[in-house]
Amino acid sequence: MEYIRIENDFPRIAHSAVTLGKFDGIHRGHRKLVEKIIGQKQEGAQAVVLALGNASRTILTKEERCRLLEKLGVDILLECPLNDRIRHMKAENFIKEILVGDLQASYVAVGEDFRFGFERKGTPQMLKEYGRKYGFDVEILPKEMDGRRKISSTFIREELSRGNMEKFHALMGMDFSVEGEVEHGRGMGHKYLLPTTNLIPSGEKLMPPNGVYITVSYFKERTYQGITNIGYKPTVGGEKFLGVETYLFDCQEDLYGQYCRVDFKKFLRPEQKFTSLEALKKQLEKDAVKGQEYFRKEK
Fold this sequence. Notes:
Order of helices and strands: EEHEHEHHEHEEEHHEHEEEEEH
Distance between the termini: 36 Å
Largest sheet: 6 strands, parallel
Oligomer: single chain
Number of strands: 14
Radius of gyration: 22 Å
């Protein structure tokens, strides 16, 4: 998949099927839109996702979003920040100059509440009207629902802020995860507590509340169940950076330097400062028992 960040001009694409939106996280509603443009590839169109927005913290990092869209079959991801040109461009000019002129869209798929253009005056119905004029098809999809509530990035952000990993999975169709190279910590875990792996999450990624979670960690050749603390390690003196520290069940390997993805399954408790390392260790052992019980029940 080709990734292009729009700074000024859009690329010229010979024939495209386009879906537009924020695509902050690729939730279940987004996937339906992506499926629609993928279906147009058999007509010779390139499947193009046009992601509009300026979020400072995102549900998926740029790398995660690219990898997922590529796996789904997207050909081109256009990341378009809402700069002055885009913010002040009239909706009809956006259609004529970008969708028709630059992208040469033959098909456009959007959600029913999609808005675009200056003062958000562009609507799905306007797209349909201009589609008839310029010769591209428009499909308007109803919002995916979770009970009585529409699935949206706002909904997902709310649940993530509560640490509701089960609801996050239900809305996204995937677990919340953090990935990166295993870092060297202080070694306190190996010396005094339980042996752990340490990751530093991307600064662009929206994180759940600090605390202890039940997790599954994936390495190149192995998978481990465990418990993970997100936070600043207040009991052992505290850190200046947010860390993701995981105790892996039944693991004695040296994993430093290896790439790892940690999937979050369930929130157990908030991060807290204990009176001693011994008190912290006892609590971690209790957390580990709850984690092992969780996985036994899952089987």
